[in-house]
From TrEMBL, chain A:
Protein name as it appears in the record: Phenylacetate-CoA oxygenase subunit PaaJ
Chain ranges of the MIP18 family-like domain: 3-74
Residue intervals of the PaaD zinc beta ribbon domain: 118-158
InterPro entries reported for this sequence: Fe-S_Maturation_MIP18, FSCA_dom_sf, MIP18-like, PaaD-like, Zn_ribbon_PaaD
UniProtKB/TrEMBL annotation, chain B:
SUPFAM superfamilies per record: Ferritin-like
GO annotation, cellular component aspect: cytosol
Protein name, entry field: Phenylacetic acid degradation protein
Pfam families for the chain: PaaA_PaaC
Provenance organism: Micromonospora rosaria
Amino acid sequence: MVDLRAAVAAVVDPEIRVVTIDDLGILRSVEQDPATGRVTVTITPTYTGCPAMDVIRADIRHALTAAGHPDVEVRTVHSPAWSTDWISDAGRAKLAAAGIAPPPPAGGTGRAVVPLTLAVRCPHCGAPETEQVSRFGSTACKALWRCRSCREPFDHVKAL
Amino acid sequence: MSDLFEFVLRLGDDALVAAQRLAEWTSRAPEMEEDVALANIALDQLGAARLLLSYAGELEGAGRDEDALAYLRGDREFRNCLLVELPNGDFAVTMAKLFLLAAYQRIRYDRLVTSTDERLAAIAAKARKESAYHVDHAALWVRRLGDGTEESHRRMQAAVDEVWPYTHELFTTDESAARLAEQGVAAAPSTLRDEWLGAVEPVLATATLTRPADGWAPGGGREGVHTEHLSYLLAEMQVLHRAHPGARW
């Protein structure tokens, strides 16, 4: 059972290839039916329209087949809804190391009367003097930012 | 047709048609960042549409999946509001439409989180966070253009004036919607308007725009009576699936 979980947890995110689906909190559970041997993997999308989900499902099947378990069912659940708080500390560290600023704690957007903006540190030089260039970035879960200190642009995982 | 099927279809068709319209901006937006933004918002709408139409297909129980509902229905079978099928117009019209729609969707999904229907509640809990982001984004442009140059102000005001009448349909409660409200499945549309106005009016005010007077209120979308624009949109959206049924890649 530990092996199965580890095999699935090692599947990397197709769009942000420095983190795994486990780091991002996309992987919810891995269970095996002791009678039939069938493995049921439960995942949840970051965004409803995330185009990476089909690739993730295929990669999970591939990983388990390679581990000797070809009988796989991948289930997708939407509740409880994914938020950036599901990204693990290890995942955050990997994102930052790859030049992607990890998200601040979720809950700051949307309903607030006065939106609270926390400083986003530049993942390249660490300076807090940064600014948003675009609210949307290269994937559904990221925004485009730029550092005013070292002048480098960088991706920032949006709080959700 | 059950009331729940009807309701989920309306919600799903709103999102699907909005996604298709927004996607028309891809490669045509005024700047690269906005191109990416509109494509992302379209993708969010499409994501919600897929969940809702899949659920609608299950409720109907006639073997239709999300693809059958999206690609194999004629315009008279679509239940979206007229607002989402209107042509994009200039950028101001697109932003006016998106702002007024997203503000409604956010409140609609917010209320659905406590629905007695668990599946709807789960979809809404996911979609409302994305809607909140759409509202923020569109409000930014409404303010920027409204409180911008003389020309941008003129066009933003004209855009809001043009689409405002179509928002009334969002808050019209028919018999089917009233029955669902009684069952605690979904709040009656008419009960959402005050909250919607509370979200919309302050943005229009800071954008130095005049809130249009209520008057003409075109409708019919919820019963399948649409403007001439929908069938053209569907023709483009459905052509591949109809030419090659079941095509995959």
